[in-house]
Design goal:
By secondary structure, the chain is an alpha/beta fold. It has a single domain (about 5-20, about 35-290), classed as Rossmann fold, CATH 3.40.50. It has helices at about 5-10, 15-20, 85-90, 110-125, 130, 145-155, 185-190, 225-240, 270-290, and strands spanning about 35-40, 45-50, 65-70, 95-100, 135-145, 170-175, 215-220, 245-250. The strands form 2 sheets. The chain has a 6-stranded parallel β-sheet with strand order 4-3-5-6-7-8, sandwiched between helices. Strands 1-2 form a two-stranded antiparallel sheet. α4 (about 110-125) packs across α6. The radius of gyration is 17 Å and the shape is globular. The termini are far apart.
Length: about 290
């Protein structure tokens, strides 16, 4: 990710051309309108989660859940960008929770966004019974910059002992074109506003010995979140004896675009690859926590 303008142009289309189905399809049977809850008040700003419950689910069932984090280069985006994916997960029996987080600007940074992500996990676990969620089966789905935040919660951690892996982060990671190696990302470095070294918030530098299972979809020729970062991340996860499934699609770039000449704004995602990637990620999550 090279600049604010590039990131806005790229990730602003994530929901429309990165994860949506290739053709118009009926809404799934899961709840189509989410319940909205405020999970955090910070500096006068209310942050919300949008809870999609599986159709016919009972609160006592304690379903697996997945929190979804949109892309946008840390400077743009909204939870609605992940609603298509959320409905797909809910239709498959999970409680799906798109999360609003603070965007970087004059006074906020990706550090603040990570704090919000961690608060969202803590909020869901604290209310697991009322939401019908199993607090030890909570995955994170992240696209691009959202993938960075999800992975940072799993590696850097959230400063508490909640969850299966004891650091307050997710119990599984489902990532799409994620920014996992930001050590040489000038844009990300500028967004930190001097509050920390870039390496301190680069997930690949903080892979732990005990990691949640990971699934990554990536384009071979991605120039915005290069494949090399995902490869290094997966290698380190596997070196610790943990699972990391990296699905690489040849000849396509960021968010599986076929337009390699302009991966910054003019998207042409490969429909077959996109749909297959969605199916693989859903199957991955279901394989972990089959009901």
């Amino acid at each position: 990710m090279r600049s604010v303008a590039i990131c806005v142009a790229v990730c602003g289309l994530a929901a429309l051309c990165g994860l949506a189905p290739s053709v118009a399809t009926p809404q799934p049977a899961a709840a189509q309108t989410p319940a909205v809850h405020a999970y955090r008040e910070v500096n006068g700003k209310t942050l919300n989660v949008h809870v999609f419950a599986p159709a016919g689910a009972r609160r006592a069932d304690a379903k697996a859940a997945i929190l979804l984090f949109h892309g946008g280069g840390w400077v743009a985006g909204e939870p609605e960008w992940t609603f298509v994916s959320a409905r797909r997960y809910a239709d498959s029996g999970l409680v799906a929770v798109p999360v609003q987080y603070r965007l970087s600007g004059e006074s906020t940074t990706p550090i603040d966004a990570l704090s919000d992500v961690c608060s969202a996990f803590q909020w869901v676990r604290a209310r697991a019974a009322s939401l019908g969620v199993d607090p030890r089966r909570i995955a994170a789905s992240g696209v691009s910059a959202g993938g960075h935040l999800a992975a940072a919660a799993a590696t850097i951690g959230c400063g508490n002992a909640e969850g299966v892996f004891g650091n307050g982060g997710p119990d599984a990671l489902v990532l799409w074109s994620p920014a996992l190696d930001v050590s040489r990302d000038g844009h990300f470095g500028r967004l930190l506003l001097g509050r920390a070294a870039v390496e301190a918030y680069s997930p690949v530098e903080h892979v732990r010995g005990r990691m949640p299972p990971v699934h990554i979809v990536h384009g071979e020729r991605d120039t915005l979140t290069p494949l090399s970062g995902a490869q290094r991340f997966c290698e380190r996860v596997k070196a610790g004896g943990n699972r990391c499934d990296l699905v690489v699609y040849p000849g396509v770039g960021h968010l599986l675009t076929r337009n390699l000449a302009n991966q910054e704004s003019d998207f042409d995602p490969d429909p077959a690859m996109r749909d297959e990637g969605n199916a693989k990620q859903l199957a991955f999550v279901k394989s972990l926590w089959a009901e």
